[in-house]
Amino acid sequence: MSLRSPFTIFAIMKEEKFSWKKRARSFKFAFAGIGRLVRCEHNARIHVAVTAGVLVAGFYFGLAAWEWAAVLLCIGGVLAAEAVNSAVEALADRITTERDEAIKYAKDYASGGVLLMVIAAVIVGLIVFLPKFYELFI
């Protein structure tokens, strides 16, 4: 096994020529990852179900552009955080199935990141939707 500088990968990446075909392939892999996330991760399915409800409510209430921007950023943030969390868990489980304190911390940090994003999204949702529901019932 040869010892390489941690920056060797960047040198290799810089030498590679730009290719539209490779960029298209990277999108293919990204969409496959999103599909797998939704198919295989229970929490991601919950996030998608909540997303559907939020989108329906947004269309019903006719959100302003800034409200859509806030809501869509939150949706993307929650789903992205869930994807990163799932990636960390998959890699950690691949490393070892035995109890390991460092892996536990990594998994806890990743799931904590999802929770923080969800809390922020709920707060944004309350700011955007509470006045609209209030007007609907008053």
Provide a descriptive summary of the structure in words.
The protein is mainly alpha-helical and 138 residues long. The chain has a single domain, classed as Helix Hairpins (Orthogonal Bundle). It has 5 helices and no strands. Helix 3 runs antiparallel to helix 4 and helix 4 runs antiparallel to helix 5. The longest helix has 37 residues.
Structural class: mainly alpha
The overall number of domains is 1
Count of discrete alpha- or pi-helical segments spanning 4 or more residues = 5
Q: For the report, how would you describe the main beta sheet?
A: none
CATH second-level architecture: Orthogonal Bundle
**Strand-and-helix sequence, N→C?**
HHHHH
| Chain-averaged pLDDT | 92
Question: How many E strands?
Answer: 0
What is the fold named in CATH at topology level? Helix Hairpins
Distance between the termini: 71 Å
Shape: extended
Low-confidence stretches: none
- Share of helix among residues? over 70%
The CATH class assignment is: Mainly Alpha
**How much of the sequence is in beta strands?**
under 5%
Rounded to an integer, what's the Rg over CA atoms? 20 Å
